[in-house]
Design goal:
By secondary structure, the protein is an alpha+beta fold. It has two domains: 6-135, Impact, N-terminal domain (Ribosomal Protein S5, domain 2, 2-Layer Sandwich); 138-207, Alpha-Beta Plaits (2-Layer Sandwich). It is 29% helix and 33% strand. The chain has five helices and eleven strands. Strands 2-3-6-4-5 form a five-stranded antiparallel beta sheet, with helices on both faces. Helix 2 packs parallel to helix 3 and helix 4 (151-161) packs antiparallel against helix 5 (185-193). It is elongated, with a radius of gyration of 23 Å.
């Protein structure tokens, strides 16, 4: 089950292709954590297919179904026949941080507004069905200082929390800068509290090891 902290996202760029009434549709999906990243992706695909009749697009940065930063374009197709059905497919997919571009090469047969909507929305749904996914995990960085006596237990706590050690140095004490999944932060800090006197949280990651 996805949350604002963890949710499925594209593992990379993914492409499918289909022909509908002699028109060739190439669907390209990819990751986009911001609208700016989505627009760069769209520009790259459009540059790859400069002779296409249309390069229509939609994007949903953020958690699945989040409409706060969405975007779409019919790119010259009749209003509402491309960008909107593409966006609806993305919003209903359960996938976040995603951008879609459907490139069309017109084959000489007009599809009509209903046919276009079904084609563009259907192409995105088809590509989503085979899209390789990974998980986005929101993380927070925390700087720590640990005595040598407390370091072994600290590392066990880090492992249980799914934390990553970004930096570690040894001097009068062990200094660490760690990355912790945001939804594990509260429990992680409670666990650190049980090591009172052995581990301390530094005020800011910049106060950790250089």
């Amino acid at each position: 089950m996805s949350s604002a902290r963890r949710y499925p996202v594209p593992a990379g760029t993914h492409r499918t292709e289909t022909v509908i009434e002699r028109s060739r549709f190439v669907t390209t999906l990819g990751p986009a954590v911001t609208p700016e990243a989505a627009k760069r992706f769209i520009a790259a695909v459009a540059a790859e297919f400069p002779d296409a009749t249309h390069n229509c697009w939609a994007f949903v940065p953020g958690p699945p179904g989040d409409t706060s930063r969405i975007g779409m374009s019919d790119a010259g197709e009749p209003r509402g026949t491309a960008g909107r059905p593409m966006l609806n497919a993305l919003l209903g997919s359960g996938v976040g941080d995603v951008v879609a571009v459907v490139t069309r090469y017109f084959g000489g047969v007009k599809l009509g507004t209903g046919g276009l909507s079904r084609a563009y929305g259907g192409c995105v749904k088809e590509a989503l069905a085979s899209l390789p996914l990974t998980e986005r995990v929101e993380r927070v960085e925390i700087a720590l200082g640990a005595s040598y006596a407390g370091a072994p237990e600290l590392h066990r706590i880090l492992e249980r929390a799914g934390a990553t050690v970004l930096e570690e140095s040894y001097g009068a004490e062990v200094l660490l800068r760690v990355s912790v999944p945001k939804d594990e932060e509260s429990e992680f800090r409670r666990s650190l509290g049980r090591l009172h006197g052995l581990v301390r949280v530094l005020p800011d990651p910049s106060g950790g090891p250089a």
